[in-house]
Design goal:
There is one protein chain. By secondary structure, the protein is of the alpha/beta class. It has a single domain, classed as Flavodoxin domain (Rossmann fold, 3-Layer(aba) Sandwich), CATH 3.40.50.360. 41% of the residues lie in helices and 20% in strands. It has seven helices and seven strands; from the N terminus they run βαβααβαβββααβα. It has a five-stranded parallel β-sheet with strand order 2-1-3-6-7, with helices on both faces. The chain has a two-stranded antiparallel ribbon with strand order 4-5. The termini are close together.
Length: 194
């Protein structure tokens, strides 16, 4: 059984969105299969945006960020859910990642002074992105640059491996069969902690 952390990256904490339904489906399936699940709702956290390199390297994280770091450290598997906004993740989620994945938590300099050590090795991740356009269009025409950036420059850089992706397109289309199939797949992923 795995310890799973779900990071809900939708910046609107006042309304229910499809990403919240995804998180609930994943949680139910994972808990039914015996996995332990915790949640971080980025919209409900209190943290400032980074404004300098000194703050990133030497600043103290807020209480909410420190708790999120403890949850990430606890987890074997991290699921990140967010809507695609202007071709990338919402700014609040990016600000959260900048606060969380600081030196000393995510990486540290190598003893030799050359290179770095990844401090989050042994953890896997799943990125779930919702969008209005067809997912295949985002994947092949736009080449899913924001997802690649999250995978390579944030998660992999800190030691996460493997990192898998689920793209769910046309979430605003009036197609119940399409969304039901997507949620069925999310339940399968939750059962197997994938």
């Amino acid at each position: 059984m795995k310890k799973i952390l779900i990071i809900q990256g939708h910046p609107d904490g006042k309304q229910q969105h499809f990403g919240h339904v995804i998180g609930q489906k994943y949680t139910s399936a994972a808990e039914d299969a015996g996995h332990s699940v915790r949640h971080v709702f980025v919209a409900n956290l209190d943290f400032p945006l980074m404004s300098s390199e000194d703050e990133f390297k030497q600043g103290e994280p807020s209480t909410d960020i420190s708790i999120a770091q403890k949850d990430i450290r606890w987890a074997d598997h991290v699921v990140i859910i967010y809507p695609l906004w202007l071709g990338t993740m919402p700014a609040m989620l990016k600000g959260f990642f900048e606060q969380v994945f600081r030196p000393g938590f995510a990486t540290t300099e190598a003893k030799s002074g050359i290179g770095f050590k990844r401090l989050l090795k042994g953890k896997s991740a799943r990125i779930v992105v919702t969008m209005g356009m067809p997912a295949t269009f985002y994947k092949w025409f736009f080449r899913q640059h924001s997802v690649k950036n999250l995978k390579r420059n944030i998660l992999s850089f800190c030691g996460f491996k493997p990192i898998k992706t689920t793209l769910i397109g046309q979430v605003y289309a009036d197609r119940e069969d399409h969304l039901s199939a997507a949620l069925s797949n999310i339940s399968r992923l939750g059962r197997h902690a994938l």
